[in-house]
Design a protein that fits this description.
This protein is about 35% helix and about 15% strand. The chain contains eight helices and twelve strands. Helix 3 packs parallel to helix 8, helix 5 packs parallel to helix 6 and helix 7 runs parallel beside helix 8. The chain starts with a strand and ends in a 16-residue tail after the last strand.
Length: about 290
């Protein structure tokens, strides 16, 4: 399978080539009660202990519920980055909407439009956009609207052109900023320009994340920087197939076209997949 994708001047010959670099016990509720032979003081102490134990049990149970494994039903194909059902009998005709370079200028508008038509998506974050208080507030709004938050590196650097230590900073710093802002680390990583490295693969594994590049995207090309042209190519490209992973960006023309693209996919029979259904490793911090 060969697809020619050119991202910001970098030609990616095939999605297959991109894969070369990728290598809760439920706490039982406990209640202590005083026996009839105890004094009034003992009864009071026992009641206090009972209340405290119940509170602790309730808290532990709550944490237990939070850390139950998620019932994932889809996964990212590690070779071609399509979204595939884990059960062969489940719906294969799905498409994933993703928005890169967020939150720049139009992320909230895009998110509100998607929310208005019940269209889920992943917003891939550049850490440089969430260093300010304004950026952090924007990220919170995206997350509070229910959108999945992904890592798109700190400064959008080409990972193949920087040192291993710099690559680590690009990925880890964004994870840290996202966690500091919304209390959750990104589950998915998308490399700028689609360029992954052995170092980034190691870091992603250590961070319990999943590589997620894309199957196609056009809104960075001059020919498709109008809503009409972008909508047409996104809905009629030969690369629109089952599990399509659509690359888009925080751009004005994408903002103007997003509803038509999402609705057009639905009209073609595609289910817009909820990213929360896509598998990723479980993390301990989910219990915090």
């Amino acid at each position: 399978m060969k697809q020619a994708l050119s991202i910001c001047g970098v030609t990616l010959i095939s999605a297959l080539l991109l894969s070369a670099c990728q290598t809760n016990d439920s706490a039982a509720s406990q209640t202590n009660s005083a026996s009839s032979s105890l004094t009034q003081s003992s009864e009071s102490n026992s009641d206090t202990m009972s209340s405290s134990t119940e509170d602790d049990s309730s808290e532990e149970t709550s944490k237990e519920e939070e850390t139950q494994p998620v019932d994932y039903t889809y996964q990212v194909n590690p070779a071609i980055f399509t979204i595939e059902p884990l059960n062969k009998d489940d719906n294969k005709k799905v498409a994933l909407l993703t928005i890169d370079d967020a939150p720049d200028q139009h992320a909230i508008e895009i998110a509100k439009k998607l929310k208005s038509i019940d269209a889920p998506a992943v917003f891939f974050i550049n850490g440089m956009y969430i260093e300010s208080d304004e950026g952090k507030e924007t990220l919170k709004q995206l997350y509070d609207m229910g959108f999945e938050i992904g890592n798109h590196s700190q400064t959008h650097a080409n990972l193949s052109e920087i040192s291993p230590e710099e690559q680590r900073k690009e990925i880890i710093r964004t994870n840290e900023l996202v966690y500091e802002t919304i209390g959750v680390k990104p589950r998915f990583f998308r490399a700028p320009f689609g360029v992954n490295t052995d170092t980034s693969a190691e870091i992603i594994k250590q961070e319990d994340m999943v590589f997620m590049n894309w199957t196609y995207g056009y809104d960075w090309e001059a020919d498709y920087q109008t809503p009409k042209a972008l909508t047409d190519i996104m809905l009629n490209t030969e690369y629109l197939n089952d599990g399509a992973n659509l690359l888009m960006h925080d751009r004005p023309w994408t903002n103007d076209a997003i509803i038509d693209i999402a609705e057009g996919l639905k009209e073609k029979g595609y289910t817009l997949i909820d990213p929360s259904l896509i598998a990723s490793p479980e993390r301990e911090e989910s219990a915090e």
